[in-house]
Amino acid sequence: MHSFVTLSLSALLLTGTASSIQFVHTGPSTTVQLTATNRLFSPDLKTLPPVYFCGESVPLHEEVVARRLVNALVRNTKQDEYLFQMRQRASRFFPIIEPILTKHNIPADFKYLPLVESALQGFAVSPRGATGYWQFMPATARELGLSVQPGHDDRKDLRKSTEAACRYLSYLHNRLGSWTLAAAAYNNGIGALLGNIRKQQQRDYYYLRLNAETGKYLYRILAFKELFSNSHLYEGVIPDRILASLRQPVGGVLAADDSDVLMPVQLINEATEVAINDAVDTPADGERLTDIPLPNAADVFRDGIRTRLHQSANLERGQTWVFNLTRAGMVDGQPVSEGDMLYAVVEDIDPKTSRIYLRADKVYSASEHRTYDLSLAAIDAATGRLGVEVPDIDQVRIGWTLTWKSL
């Protein structure tokens, strides 16, 4: 399993912030410099509360361990809106995941693992092909009893993939004898981890020298656990505004039944399959037949809709991004509401012109829990032409606004 690069979208695309964070070691404490606000935040590492993962104590008396945990905590609190959205998703998905973990005798702390792997998104796909909530590679998924075939992928099914993840975690724990090592092996593979253990003659995750991703992996899981369940213990470590946000109840959450939780994912999967199977015609001379101007730019603002990027996957053809409508309106005779979710597929990328072509066939109403069938395409708001010019990849991040026109 390799963590979902976005979402580790992770992470520029998901967190969507230009703020930089620097950690300056100053003896017994770590200074975190938030350059966006020119403000210094200096948590005292000696005041950290005891932390446990699956009943195993985290050795926070070791300064390097304490600094890594603080690092993970701060990185997860860069965007309080994003963190709130993650809490909302967790409040709906955890009631499904937790009983399955209990049935398989897997510690409840592993419910935070898919937050790191996929941000609890069934459509998440890594560059290497790991897919779904728990980010299984095709071969591993099949070995665990999941069906992976065109048009049907059990990795995108929350219950089936969680059952498979439990079987895999049980196997890892039986082989390694430690839940921390099982988590590390989930990320890096049991063969690579056993090789490090033999070479270094060390079986404690916190003292093993691992690759950068695996070395930070457990701390990222711990950060979500502490932020979601023990944030009140981190006054002086987490900035006050984040603590205030974490104390806010997650409002507007409905009962987590299959139809409610999985409906958006079903729409995404359907849209993705269409994008992958439908060929995009590009003339040999490099000119696109679809790149034609609409009647005039004024019509774009009169009849088009505006959206804000909510979640994104990789910048690759066939990937699905989620947008929220920023205002109510009418599109092709169909009323749409502010906050409705538009599931758009990256239909094509033209490197010669630095244009991205996005298409959406459905809009999902979160308030009414129903789908609007609409055929929309992202357009250049200045010219009314199909496709969006993106000269700088940093523009493609949370909050990116686009104009859409009915096809």
UniProtKB/TrEMBL annotation:
Keywords on record: Signal
InterPro entries, sorted: Lysozyme-like_dom_sf, Transglycosylase_SLT_dom_1
Annotated signal peptide: 1-20
Gene3D superfamilies: 1.10.530.10
Domain Transglycosylase SLT: residue ranges: 101-205
Family: Belongs to the transglycosylase Slt family.
Protein name: Lytic transglycosylase domain-containing protein
Species this protein is from: Spirosoma rhododendri
